[in-house]
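note to self: the first set is below, dont mix up w the second
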Amino acid sequence: MAAVTPAEQRRNRQLARQLGYNDRNGDGIPDVDPLSREELAAQYKSAVGIIYSVPEIRPLFEQALNEGWTVDRFTASLQETDWYRNNPEYYRTAWAKETIGGADWQEELNVARQAVQSRATQVGAALNGAQVDALARRFVYEGWGQSGRQSFLDKALSEDVSYLPDERGRAGFKGASGDFVERLQQLAEANGVNFSMDWYQSAARSVLSGLSTESDWERDVRTQAAGKWGPWGDRIKAGMNAYDIASPYISVMADTLELSPASIRMDDPYISQAMMGSDGQPMPIWDFQQKLRKDPRWMNTNYAQNQITGVADQIMQMFGLRG
């Protein structure tokens, strides 16, 4: 082979740089750097550490070293591995950061912990330290902070939505879940239907995880209420509350028995009987009032006492015992 002239060497080296490889001796043949793994580790400690952490990539890298592959060829081969194809970019990035370790990875975890704890407080999920740490790792590895993936955090937190009954025995949910449960409880009470605390917890978890909406559960309440208050079912399904429909009966009952309207609930037997009536027809107000006056409580009302006193006075006068 003829010797390469100095001018040809210069041209070869310039061409090699343009094509992205080295040709230090200018012979027109790409150089294969005889770097040992130790030299690579010294110069590219983080990258080699990452590569050697994946069993599927390590032999590929060894082959690339032995056969003098270009970076592009190694990259293309890496992208064909199962590990690369089966793990999305956010996972690969998180895995690489954790493999390298250091302050950057700890800062990434701290940011994730803050995001998890903040959202848990908002939705009413009670987490201990270990749970926050576990979800923080998932937050980073599963890309929950990226656009379009925030719902995955809510879905994970939904399993930790819980309640502690308060002194009245009602559910003490927290955060957004507590607000939703309170609205649902008020709707159920206004329609005279009852649900267990487990039912409310299931509702809160389902809505938080995105499996259902608040409207779905409100519709469920109205459907059950409509079944209970047969004659008024269509109105309840259309958006009226049974309490509003029963307000004339509640007002008459409050006046007749001298009660506070707020103390009269939809599950009161008198209200239930008046609403349902007989033969599918609600009870007339007059009949309802007469029924109430047979209640022992009516005899203790001021109205009843006044009537009794008036009758007694009249009888006394009739017998000449009072002027």
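second set (the one i keep forgetting abt)
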Amino acid sequence: MRWVLACSLVIWSVVPGYAGVRVKDITFVDGVRPNLLYGFGLVVGLDGTGSKSLFTQQVAVDMLQKLQVSSKVVADIKSDNVFKSGNIAAVMVTAELGPFQREGSRVDVTVSVLDDSTSIQGGTLLLTPLRGVDGEVYVVAQGPVSVGGFTFSGRAASAQKNHPTVGRIAGGGIVEKEARSSLGKRSVVHFVLSQPDFRTAKEIERVINERYGPIAMAVDGGTVAVRTGASEDHKIVELLADIGSLEVWPDAPAKVVINERTGTVVAGEHVKISTVAIAHGNLAITVSEEPLVSQPPPLSRGETTVVPRSSVGVAEQSGNLHVVPKAVTVGELARALNALGVTPRDLISIFQALKEAGALHAELVIM
């Protein structure tokens, strides 16, 4: 059997320059935020893919007792008040409650297996209260679980697609208690940048003031304060809707993001390098496995055995010294590095070396 060490797929991303984006796509209004909810529940109706653990069975019995459903086992044998079933799964249920969702509206919920169940495909989530960080119940969830995957197994083989232990219920949660935002009749509204940047904040301030007069002021690199001058809610909503539709040209610091696990390299549009000379050699590694069968002589007491035999070959390719001129745009940087014929792993090593040499004028982020 032959194994050859290969490099990962490269993705070189070039961010187009001078692209106008809407204010609401890069900011959010202070006080207008979603709330995360979670709860513990049971999924029933599984086709033998549930858990047989004592924990899950006991939880099921406790639920039945709360529903005033008991059996002779539960009533007479307190030390063994469980029943054996592979059609139940203990799950954690999560949801996100928006700031303007009202009582009776529906939200999507995500169901994730907590025990050793192998799949919740075809199951139904029983009534589950979802609580916030304050311990209050805001949503109750129930319904059939939709799983974007499957798992099938036999005695000697199995097949699985995606994650059958995580599912979703579209509109499976009903809002029982509202989590109202603190927008109210505020005279000053703060727009918070998703990616703080001083120049972007000043750009938002400029665009708003050009449209409505001097009502906006960049407080810092992450916040722009806007005076609403309105005493009625509908006027504030109208102003915020109009501001959110304004287009700005955001700025961002120069970054090179590297994912060493996948060999992915992403460079922003402001990345530049100084004139440098680069020499980078590659290693070609080949591992061969050729098992050798050792056969004993006839009438001997020896046994036939398989003796592993491995051969490893390493060939280092020559790396010539290349001069990369100072790059003005990320496109020119990409063309210069592609001219060297580098692989994704080579790019990672080169960017790290450029940073150490002080020739890479960008932040290097390693994931």
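remember for set 2: The mean pLDDT is 78.
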